[in-house]
Amino acid sequence: MSMKRTAPLAAALLCVGMMSAQAKQNSCDEPILIGTTISMTGPLASLTGNWDKMTDAFAEEINKSGGVMMASCNKRVPIKFAVYDDQSNPATAVSLHEKMATVDNVDMFAGTDWTFVVTPVSTVAEKHKIPIIGGNVATPSAFERGLKYFWSVPYPMTFNWDANYFDMLKNVDPKPKTMFWVTQDNPVYKSVRDVWAKKYEEIGVKVVGDETFPNDLKDFSSIVLKIRAARPDIIYINSFDNVAAPLLQQLRQMRVKAMGVHFPIVSLALARQTKTYGGTEGITGVIGWVPGVKSEFGDLMQRVLDKAGVNMFESATVMPRLASYIVAVQALEKAGAVDKEKLREALTKGSFRGPTGPINFDEKGQPDTRTLVTQHQGDKVVVVWPPDLSTGKLQWPAPSWQ
Questions:
Q1: Which site among 72, 119, 141, 162 is 20 to 30 Å from 277 CA-CA?
Q2: For 351-385, what is each residue's pLDDT tens digit?
Q3: CATH architecture of the domain covering 2-155+295-360
């Protein structure tokens, strides 16, 4: 169940929301209201297809059993979402979170995505002392501000971003010796490069190229020529999928070769866009969970995704959003009351059950989440690392890039 809006209500309603704020605390007589924004329009809309329907489906699944158990009143209380379109715009997201805090009178925020959006939004949560559990917020700098009401569950943080891919490269044969980085001008991806380029150097994978490109670049020919001249063993495409589709097309057109191409946010949408030229065949990526991988929440997630018509491989960034909802429900149960301070206490350095294992928050609100490494093989996407969770065998070196 959700209430959906695309614009704030009249300013005259602000006082109504503020007057009801105190009365609602510790009440079990109305649904627990969780506020969120989704980038349904704007440049990031291609990443969030049907996420509003998925949010509805999640609430329906939780409410099947009556909702969240509240120990303070010894009963289950249903959850409800207030959902708005932030238009992929930080200023819009801030305005909408102000509205949810003062007019909608939400009990908590969950799911709001993207470091550049959530960084200013989290200050709204802090001002109103409303806990917020973000989704895709992976940059450590977002957590370095001493906030007391901010947590997030990206899959993963940048310092864990390549943990399993890194381990995979240490175990492949033949071992790669060089890597070329192509990075979107985005705080998350620049942070990934800053952290992991150094780590790869430590295991003998030398960086032989490092290019950063603007979000609206369409002609990557000069970068492709540099890659071809450098002849790297690994081409690391460090960006959102739709932004770098022209790069992948041009690499294929110019017949660039490599042991492997790694594109963390690789999707079936990207595969379709580039199919004429060989598409995503052989490319490795990362993902938080896939159907078929054993998980405590596997059945729940599959039902929610199926109801909403969301395909994990079409929407590679969906897992953090779902994980934020899963953690929110557990945090409410731990708090045992519809009380923002008790909820904050439950989340502070808290431990929760996640889609592929425990989620432990540190004192800054950062989680210890990790991803699975996938590879596109024919018409399938298979998990190839770590071995104990794999659903297929890694093809190495990638045949389609030889």
A1: 162
A2: 999 988 899 999 999 999 988 999 999 888 899 99
A3: 3-Layer(aba) Sandwich (3.40)
